[in-house]
Design brief:
The protein has helices spanning 2-11, 66-84, 115-127, 157-169, 188-192, 224-244, and strands spanning 15-25, 28-39, 46-52, 93-99, 133-140, 149-152, 176-181, 197-201. It has 6 helices and 8 strands; from the N terminus they run αβββαβαββαβαβα. Helices cover 30% and strands 23% of the residues.
Length: 266
C-alpha cells in the first residue's frame, strides 16, 4: 500500500517525503512510515489534507479495511490528482499526509493509537514547520453507501462551518448533518499544538455500525459516489479555508482537545 501511494503521487509530479520512525507499542517496537506529498501552490502557508492508510490488526479473521483506511486514502489520491492538474496560481499549497499507525494494536488509548499523527505533529512542532500550517482537513471512513457525516465537536468550529456551508452550496447538504459527535482521531495531536483542524468522518458504518472493524468491511460496502461527495466538498472548501486562515495568529498549545473520550479505535 505504501509503495502504491508513493508511486501514484510521483506520477503526478508531487514531491514525496517518507517519515520513517519506530513506534513503541504494547506489542513491542514497530517500524512505521508516514507519507507526505507536497504540492506547491500560490501561498506560503500550507493546508494539510490527511488520512490514515494503515488497517486494524486482527489475528482471527482477514480484515480488508475498504472503508476504514481504504476510502479516505483513495479519496486523498484523487484530490491530489485533481489539484495537481490545476495551474499553480489557481490552487493553495497543499500537503497530502498519509498517516501510519492510527489504529490501536491492542486497545485504544492515548499511548496505543494515532502513532503516525502524534509523531509527525511533534516532529513538525519541534522543527518549526507547524508555523506554516494553516489548517488540517482529516478524512476518515467516508465510503459508506449511506453517507451521514456529523459535526465533530472537537474540530475547529470555523472550519466545520466552512465545510458544511460548502456542502450545502454544492447540493450535498443532506450528507452533512447538523448532529454532533465526539471523535478522537488523527486531528487531535495537531489540535493540541494549536493547528486548526476538522475531521470529516461517518462513524456509522452499516446497520447498527455492524461493518466497523469486522470482516464485513469490504469493497462491496463502499460507494464511489460517497467518495466523490467528500472529495468535491474538500476541494470546493479550500479557497474559503485559505482565505479564512490567511492572517491566522496561533497560540501554540492553547487549544482545548479531547483526552480519552470519543470513539475507541478507528
Amino acid at each position: 500500500a505504501r509503495d502504491y501511494i508513493i508511486k501514484q503521487l510521483r506520477r503526478l509530479d508531487i514531491k514525496v517525503e517518507r517519515d520513517d520512525f519506530t513506534a513503541q507499542t504494547p506489542l513491542g517496537p514497530r517500524s512505521m512510515t508516514n507519507i507526505i506529498g507536497k504540492l506547491p501552490g500560490r501561498s506560503e502557508g500550507v493546508i494539510l489534507v490527511a488520512s490514515h492508510y494503515d488497517t486494524k490488526l486482527f489475528d482471527n479473521f482477514r480484515f480488508v479495511g475498504a472503508n476504514d483506511g481504504g476510502s479516505s486514502t483513495g479519496a486523498l489520491l484523487e484530490i491530489a490528482r485533481v489539484l495537481a492538474h490545476r495551474p499553480v496560481e489557481d490552487r493553495p499549497t497543499v500537503w497530502f499526509v498519509f498517516f501510519d499507525g492510527e489504529e490501536a494494536l491492542v486497545r485504544w488509548s492515548r499511548s496505543d493509537s494515532k502513532y503516525g499523527s502524534r509523531h509527525l505533529a511533534k516532529k513538525w512542532h519541534e522543527a518549526g514547520i507547524l508555523r506554516r500550517v494553516r489548517a488540517l482537513i482529516l478524512l476518515d471512513m467516508i465510503g459508506d453507501k449511506e453517507l451521514d457525516i456529523k459535526r465533530d465537536a472537537f474540530s475547529t468550529r470555523s472550519l466545520v462551518e466552512i465545510i458544511w456551508r460548502t456542502a450545502a452550496r454544492m447540493g450535498y447538504g443532506a450528507y452533512f448533518l447538523s448532529e454532533r459527535t465526539f471523535v478522537d482521531d488523527d486531528h487531535e495531536p495537531f489540535l493540541r499544538l494549536g493547528v486548526p483542524a476538522v475531521d470529516i468522518i461517518d462513524f456509522h458504518y452499516g446497520p447498527s455500525n455492524r461493518y466497523w472493524h469486522t470482516a464485513a468491511d469490504t469493497l462491496d460496502k463502499v460507494d464511489a459516489r460517497s467518495l466523490k461527495i467528500v472529495g468535491d466538498v474538500v476541494i470546493g472548501a479550500l479557497p474559503a479555508i485559505e482565505a479564512a486562515t490567511a492572517t491566522r495568529v496561533r497560540s501554540l498549545g492553547s487549544s482545548a482537545v479531547p483526552t480519552s473520550r470519543g470513539r475507541q479505535g478507528l
